[in-house]
Amino acid sequence: MRHPVILFLFCNQIHALNFRQEPGQDVFQEHPEASGTLMDDIFGSLITIDNQFFPGQTSEQMQQYSGSDTTHASASSVFKLNKLRFPEDDDLSDFTGLGPLYSGIVTFAHLPESNCFFDQEEAIDIAISGAPFDLGVSYNSGARFGPNGARQGSRRLGSGNNPIRGNNKSSKLRRLDPYHAGLKIVDCGDVPMTPFDSRIALNQLYRGQRAIHKHPSLNSTRYNQTRIVTLGGDHTITLMNLKSAFETFGEIDGLAVIHFDAHIDTWDPKVLGGGISDYASLNHGTFLHYATEAGYVSKNHSVHVGIRAPFISSDDERHDAEDCGFQTFTSKDIDIYGTRGIAKMIKKIVGDKKVYLTFDLDTFDVGLVNSGTLEAGGLSTREVLTILDGLEGIDLVGSDIVEVSTAPNTINSASTELLAAQVVDSLLGLMVVNDIP
Ligand SMILES: *[C@@H]1O[C@H](CO)[C@@H](O)[C@H](O)[C@H]1NC(C)=O
Ligand SMILES: *[C@@H]1O[C@H](CO)[C@@H](O)[C@H](O)[C@H]1NC(C)=O
Ligand SMILES: *[C@@H]1O[C@H](CO)[C@@H](O)[C@H](O)[C@H]1NC(C)=O
Ligand SMILES: *[C@@H]1O[C@H](CO)[C@@H](O)[C@H](O)[C@H]1NC(C)=O
Ligand SMILES: [Mn+2]
To answer: Where is the composition biased (Polar residues) (predicted)?
Structure first.
């Protein structure tokens, strides 16, 4: 484990030094003492393999084992001679580009930032946008910090091949780097949502989503408008995301909705909140009822995954299935059908419909995250990643992660941030894999 890391760091350093080399000036002149590999020259006898421990080996075999590559000899002579040459005092040419992953102004996965709300002409394939809002929760607040949290958790994302993306070797997700697959992905920042009136805040979100959706796509093979991944925010925000996605991409009978959650969220608004005031009837437990009523959700093609919270009234299950048209996989169904089995069944339910996927962080088990309404008996991180990758091929026009409660100084805040980011990473994989230019 150690050696590749050390080499990597030193290789980086050499690049930086090489970069500063003046034309015609040979900084790395061969020195007579510099003869071994870079590792030999820097660490010397600390790591040299001693012949006496391998009595049966010829010296040729030993040399093969310990390496005789002299390609880096000239570079390593810089270290050997201990003559580090710094750039000119006013030279900042090595400040361009990315610094270490934990530094810098934070966008999701280091994506370029875009002024999406005002520069309407810019062509964008996929936009990340935050919805910092938690006025709709019935239990634990803090999701207003979720967009920032997801970005903080995404700092190690943005490039490279993930060896567990895709569930098998013939999957198109395998070896896909969604950030560099030819689609333009940007971070639009957050929609400014007032913390004082949820009606105004949700309307602000709708107008923000609409403004982003109006952008033309750049390299997409399937869509003329920009698709959005929203960082929430409590689950109420999905109503506005769905409304704008439906108006942009929807068919007459709505979008197929894949809803990962511990709760059904189609609760009767008269019971949950509506008993207090009409204003209170729209919240994170009723938004799916309203979305269905408004026609954004395709009945018979929509599904809950991970359900385990108790129902409030005896009519909830009937209302959910018959009035709202959802099929349900509970968290224990994953033990019965397996992660790949569940993924196959979800794909069958949504068919070739346009899909909106909304992911409530409380899908994960209670010990892993902080979220609006935590429930025992949830999914593991690996189960979630396998199910999501098993959805490869769905026509995903929009998605969000919600109930990302990363309020300052709260427990599990760091793992909540990381898991939120990781789910978005999987969602980007699903959105890109079907649309590689
Ligand atoms: C491999 O993954 C792809 C994409 O999810 C799927 O279509 C295919 O059936 C899988 N193959 C096997 C052998 O599981
Ligand atoms: C879009 O496609 C063009 C033409 O193939 C390519 O040069 C460009 O890099 C692509 N944009 C992105 C963001 O990948
Ligand atoms: C995208 O625009 C082109 C050109 O106007 C049109 O032919 C095509 O049907 C549109 N595609 C979608 C998915 O709307
Ligand atoms: C949903 O499926 C049921 C049973 O197959 C059918 O009776 C109903 O008409 C379907 N609803 C819609 C909106 O397609
Ligand atoms: Mn929810």
So the answer is: 159-170
The mean predicted confidence, pLDDT, of the chain is: 87
pTM: 0.85
HSE-up of 344 (CA within 13 Å, CB side)?
A: 6
Q: Is the CB of 169 under 6 A from ligand 1?
A: no
Q: How many angstroms is it from 436 CA to the middle of ligand 1?
A: 18
Query: Which residue's CA is the closest to the ligand 4 atom numbered 10?
Result: 300
pLDDT at residue number 5: 33
The arithmetic mean of pLDDT across residues 406-434, rounded, is: 97
Q: Please give the pLDDT value at position 385.
A: 98
Q: Which domains does the chain have, with CATH numbers?
A: 2-95 (no CATH), 108-433 (3.40.800.10)
Instruction: Calculate how far, in angstroms, residue 168's C-alpha sits from the geometric centre of ligand 1.
Output: 6
For a mutational test of ligand 1's pocket, the pick from 165, 167, 434, i.e. the residue with the most ligand atoms closer than 8 A to its C-beta, is: 167
pLDDT band at 59 (very low <50, low <70, confident <90, very high): low
Distance 225 CA to ligand 3 centre (A): 10
What is the mean predicted confidence (pLDDT) over 283-312?
A: 97
